[in-house]
Amino acid sequence: MTAHGSTGTALIETLKARLGEAYVLTAAGDIDGYLTESRGLYRGEALAVVRPKDRDEVAFVLQECAKASVPVVPQGGNTGLVGGGVPYGGVVLSLARLDRIREIDPVNATITVEAGCILKTVQDAASDSGFLFPLSLASEGSCRIGGNLATNAGGTAVLRYGNMRDLTLGLEVVLADGRIWDGLKGLRKDNTGYDLKDLFIGSEGTLGIITAAVLKLFPKPHARVTAFIGCASPYDALKVFQRLREAAGDQLTAFEYMPEFGIEIVLKHMPGSVRPLAEKYNSYALIELSSPQKDADLQSQLEAVLGEAFEKGLVQDAVLGSSEAQSQALWGLREHLSEVQRMEGGSIKHDVSVPVSRVAEFIDVATKACEAEMPSVRVCAFGHFGDGNIHFNLSQPVGMDKAEYLGQWERFNRIVHDIVHNMNGSISAEHGIGLIKRDELVHYKDAVAIDLMRSLKRTIDPQNILNPGKVVAVGDNLPATFPKAG
Questions:
Q1: Closest to 346 measured CA to CA, from 400, 386, 426
Q2: Which of 157, 227, 332, 337 has the fewest CB atoms within 10 Å distance of its CB?
Q3: Residue 475, φ and ψ in degrees, nearest 5
Q4: What is the number of other CB atoms lying within 10 angstroms of the CB of residue 16?
Q5: Is 322 helix (H, G, I), strand (E, B) or coil?
Q6: How do residues 420-474 score in pLDDT, each as one tens digit?
Q7: How far is residue 370 from each of residues 238, 341, 374, 394, 418, measured CA to CA in Å?
Q8: Strand 252-259 relative to strand 283-291, pairing
């Protein structure tokens, strides 16, 4: 599907005439940063990178690319983790210039934003208006709303507020032929047929290009308390979670699980990090309660639950953040965990989910299975315990060659994903499918579901020009796998 010769040249000139030469990039040095995602697993190629300023220019680009049968790969902040934004020929469509906040409706508690808005900008705009936009990710300073929507992003607050699908009321989407679907309604009830927005949220740019969204806002928390606990096992941590959920309800905003190995590498690689508990434990949890009520006594509530759990032997030790600075330091242990793993060499990563009731069992069973396969592998299982999403990552053995280790990726995929499947879980919880899990999806997902997904793709994008080869393959002429980076 790569454009060659006169067709590609004519398309580029047409796009330059509408967008301006400065916003149609073709030089190798200008487009290089758009060809590889943040983990650098794959490196693609592109005819050009286009940077439209609004939805009408996006529509024009798609109309012209459809006429020329040239594929289009949308990109936001290019912070993806599954190869979903890597182009293989065609045009990369950057949404970075669509960065306006169109409206804040305080009575309806909504914010309407364009897809190129950086997540932190949306958070700040909501806060300035006295509200909370709760999506929170490690990459929030660079990821963009369009990408958050395209991957149905989750983050640390899913337990209380849900993922992007739960946070979205309406969308504006440009289709493969350049038509614009205007679904920017801030309605909490709209029972007029199919809920079209859910087709595009989580579709990774394979069905349409999201250009704007109406997002929910929430009361800003005025009371907050953070705790860090040590437990003997993930099973004990799960029991603590159950007790907190029963006692605190929606005030339980976060329950993030971490292993001792995770804490060790954060302390090793992040200057200023301090071990919060005197002793080492098998399992840890970072807990947050919050409330919009200024006089809510969350600390007493949390202390009561943890005190009872301590008496039952479920909690070995605990510390509460006594100040905002200390709470931030506790959160730092969790937030830095993803980035420090790369400092320990190769990491084979799995973003999976199982029913909450089985999350501790999954960590236990999958850890033992991987260690039985490679005794020196270092398991780093962490994540959003309260919604069943675990990042089950495997750091390379000390002294092992990185390339040799990463060559075992498929071997460990089968071990981990088989366990997830047998527990009625999902092989992708919040990062998406992209390229890296495309073939795994076919292996594990219901065959009827795969057929329906392919039928939708063929119907909505009959030329297969929108991010072809990602999520589900539908007979395009892409290679079975993309060329590896480097």
A1: 400
A2: 332
A3: 85, 20
A4: 16
A5: coil
A6: 999 999 999 988 898 889 989 999 999 999 999 999 999 999 999 999 999 998 8
A7: 22, 18, 6, 9, 12
A8: antiparallel
42 DSSP 8-state letter: B
What one-character-per-residue DSSP string does 445-459 give?
Answer: S-HHHHHHHHHHHHH
The answer to whether residue 94 scores a pLDDT higher than 90 is: yes
Helix, strand, or coil here: 19? Answer: helix
CB atoms within 10 A of CB 135: 25
Interstrand relation of 101-105 and 91-94 (parallel, antiparallel or unpaired): unpaired
With contact defined as beta carbons under 8 Å apart, do 465 and 89 qualify? no
Q: Is the pLDDT of residue 197 over 90?
A: yes
CA angle 470, 473, 479 (to 5 degrees): 80
End-to-end CA distance of the chain: 23
In whole angstroms, how far apart are CA 339 and each of 134, 239, 287, 455? 22, 29, 21, 38
b/e per residue 116-129 (b: at least 16 CB within 10 A) = bbbbebbbebbeeb
Cα–Cα dist 152/202, whole Å: 5
Dist. CA 102–CA 117, nearest whole Å: 11
Query: H or E stretch including 239?
Result: helix 234-248
Tokens 């020009």, residue located: 465
